[in-house]
Amino acid sequence: MKKLFLYLKKYPFWIFLCLVLLFGQAMADLSLPNLMSDIVNIGIQKGGIKESAPEALSPDAMKLMLTFLSDSDRKAVESSYSLMKAGSSEEYSKKFPKSETSDIYVLKSGSDNNRLGAIFGRSAFALLYYLQDAAGQSGKPHTGQASASFTEGLNEVDMSALYKMQPMLDKLPSSAFEKYMKMAENIDDSILTQVSNVMVKQFYDELEVDTGSIRLRYILRTGIFMLLITLAGALATFFVSLISTRISSDVGRRMRQDVFSRVVRFSSTEFDKFSTASLITRTTNDITQVQMLLITGIRMICFAPIMGIGGIVMAVRKSPSMSWIIAVAVLVLIMLILVIFQVAVPRFKLIQKLVDKLNLVTREHLSGMMVIRAFGTQKYEEERFEGVNRELTGVNLFINRIMAVMFPVMSFLMNILSLVIVWVGAHLIDLGSIQIGDMMAFIQYSMQIIISFLMISITFIMIPRAAVSVSRIAEVLDTEPVILDPDKPKDIKGKARGRVEFRNVSFKYSGAEDYVLKDISFVAEPGKTTAFIGSTGSGKSTLVNLIPRFYDVTEGQILIDGIDVREMSQHDLHEIIGYVPQKGILFSGTIASNLKYGRNGATGEEIAEAAAIAQATEFISALPEGFESPIAQGGTNVSGGQKQRLSIARALVKKAPIFIFDDSFSALDFKTDAALRKALKESTGDSTVLIVAQRVGTIKNADQIIVLDQGRIVGKGTHSELIKSCETYREIALSQLSEEELA
Predict the structure, then answer these.
(1) Among 62, 172, 248, 617, fewest CB within 10 Å belongs to which?
(2) 469/587 same-domain check
(3) Domain end position, chosen among 206, 241, 276
C-alpha cells in the first residue's frame, strides 16, 4: 500500500477537505437523532416549553409551590422572582395576557434556570406525594422513585382546585410536609427538570399563554433546522463523492500511464517474466480495484469511525443505563467482522491470479483460433476455458455468499437490538429514568453504530483486495529494465553511416547455463547486404535482435560506426534502424497510418514509393479505399504475405542507415520475393542491410553470407565461396536448389 500513498501525496489539500466535510456530515447525522428527541420530549410532551423554571407565574401558583419547599429552596425562589403589578409592562402583557389584569411573579434576569427547575420539580413531587396520601393511597409505600405516572398526574391536576386548598394548607405546620420533601430530594435532577417543565406549562396556561402556538413554533423551528442539517449533510456527501471520484480517476490515470510507460521500457527479459495476459490484468482490473477503494474508501475509512465513535458517545450520553446494550452489540459486530476477514481475505489474491489465468487462456484461444480449428481441438479448448472459468466463478461465489450472508445478519442484529432497546427503555421510561424521545434517539444512534461497523467491515474486505492489486501494480513499477540508457549517451543520430561490427559476441538468456551465441565476429558494411542462414535454432533471430538491444550481449561488443550500442540512447539507436520482425505485426487503423508508423512525417509520395518497393501497390490499389483502407487489430483482415509486405514498406518509409529483415520474406512467393529483393537493392542505396532467411534463393546474391550452426559461425563469404568452403551451407543449398541453380 506504500505505493498507493505515494500517488496520494499529490492531493493533501483535497483529502484534508474530504476529512473536514466528512466530519461535518458525521456531526450533522449525529445531531439529527438528538433533534428528533427534542421534538418528542420538548415539542410534544412539554408543549414546546424548554425552560425548566417558569419565566412568570401567578401569586397563587407561587404560594402553592413555596408551601412544599424547604427553607433554603424557598429563599432561592423568593430571591429569584419579583412581583410585577397588573398592566405595568406592555412586553409582559403580550407574552402573558393575564398580567394585564392580575399581578404576576416575574423571573429576574441572571437567575439560575436549571437550579430553579430542580427546585420547582422537588416542590411538584412533594405536592404529588401529599395528594396521593390525601386521596387515601398512604397504604401503598413510596419507593422514592419517579415514574411516568407522576408526569401524567401533573397533566391531570386542576390548578384552580389546588388553589382552593391553600387556606387549609396554610393552617398545617411545615413539619407536615417534611416527609414528602425528603422523598422528593431523592429524585434525580434530570427527572425533576422534566416534571418542572410540565408544571411550567400549567403555569403558562393559567396566565392565558397560547401554549399550542408555542408547541407548533418549536416543532416547526426544530423540523426546519433538521431539514437544513440534512441538506448540509447531503451537500457534504455530494462534494466528498465528487472529490473522491476525481482523485480516484486521476490516480487510476497516472497508474495506468506509469505502468504503460514502464512496460514500454521493458526489454524481452522483462516480458519473459510477466505474461502479456498478466500485464493486461494489472493495467486494467487491478487498477480498477484501486479506484474502487479510493472512491468508497476515502468516504468509508474516514466517515465510519467518526460515526461509530460519535454514535457510541451520543448513545451513552442519552442513556448511560442502556450503554451495556451498545457494548454487547459492538462486541458481536467485531467478532462477525473478524470471522469474515479471516475467511474472505485469502481468496482475493487467488481471484487476481485466476483473472490472469482466464485472460491467458482467452488470449491464447483467440490468437490461435486457426490452429485450434485446424487440429479440431475446439472441445478441448472449451473444457480448458470452462475449467478456469468455473474455478474463478466458484471463488467469486464464495466471497459473494459471505457478503450476502453478512447483510441479513446485520439486519437481524439491528432488529434484535431495536427490540432490546424498546424492552429495556420501556421499563426505564416507566421508572422515569429516561424520556420517550431519548429512547427513540438511542435506537437511532444504535442503528448508526451498526451501519458504521458494516461500512468498516466492507472497508476491511476492500482494503486487502486492493492491497493485492497495489502489490501487483508495484511489482511492475518496481521492475527495473535490465537494458538501460547510459548516463551520458554518445550521439550518433543524423551522422550514422551504418557500419555494424560484431566483436567476439556471446549471448545466453538470463538464468540459462548454455550460450545461444558464442564468439560471433563479423562486419556488415554500408551499401552492402549481409545475410544470415542456418538450421532452426541456430541463433539467427537472436543475433539480429542484439543490434537494436532487445537483449544485451553477455560478452563482447556490438559496434555501429565504432560506437558500442550500449553507449547510445535506445531512442537514437532505434532511430537509425529500420526493423522488420519475423512475425509481421500491424496496428488497428489504416494502411497509411501503419506505414507512417515508420516515420510520422512521411509524405504520401514517400508512402507510395515504399509500398511500391515492397511490392504492395497492386493489392493496395485493388482495395476500394486504397491507402485509407482499414486494418484490423493485428492485421487479421489481410493475408500473411500482404502483412509482410506492409511491414517491409513501414520499415522502408523510415529511410534508415541500417535495415534488419528477420526472416521477413518467408510468406512471399518466389516471383514477389525476387521482385522485392531487386527493388530493395536499388532503394536501400548506402544503407547496411541485414537479412535473416531460411531460403537460399533469398540471400543468394548477398554481398556477405554468414552461416550459423548451434550459435557459432561455421561459414562466411559469398554464395559461390560458401558452396565450395562450407559443408553446412552446401547441405542447406542442396536441400533447396538443384545443381544448376547452385551455380
Answers:
(1) 172
(2) no
(3) 206
Which DSSP string corresponds to 124-191?
Answer: HHHHHHHHHHHTT-TTS---S---HHHHHHHHH--HHHHHHHHHHHHHS-GGGGHHHHHHHHTS-HHH
Q: What is the DSSP letter of 40?
A: I
Q: In what order do the strands lie in the sheet with 56-57?
A: 56-57, 104-107, 81-84
Three cell numbers, residue 719: 554464395
Within this chain, do residues 523 and 429 fall inside the same structural domain, yes or no?
no
Cβ contacts of 151 within 8 Å, gap of 6 or more: 45, 194, 195, 198, 432
Mean pLDDT to the nearest integer, 210-231: 90
pTM given for the model: 0.69
Q: In this predicted structure, what is the pLDDT of residue 491?
A: 82
Eight-class DSSP state of 1: -
Cβ contact 73:123 at 8 Å:
yes
Contact at 8 Å (CB) between 86 and 99?
yes
Number of domains in the chain: 3
Give residue-wise pLDDT tens across range 726-738: 999 988 888 887 6
Using CB atoms within 10 Å of the CB of residue 724, give its burial: 0 to 12 exposed, 13 to 18 middle, 19+ buried: exposed
Domain residues for the domain of 68 are: 59-206
Other CB atoms within 10 Å distance of the CB of residue 470: 24
Look at residues 114, 126, 112 and name the one whose alpha carbon lies nearest to residue 187.
Answer: 126
Q: How far apart are CA 524 and CA 532, in angstroms?
A: 11
- The 3-state DSSP class for residue 706 equals strand
On the CB side of 604, how many CA atoms lie within 13 Å of its CA? 3
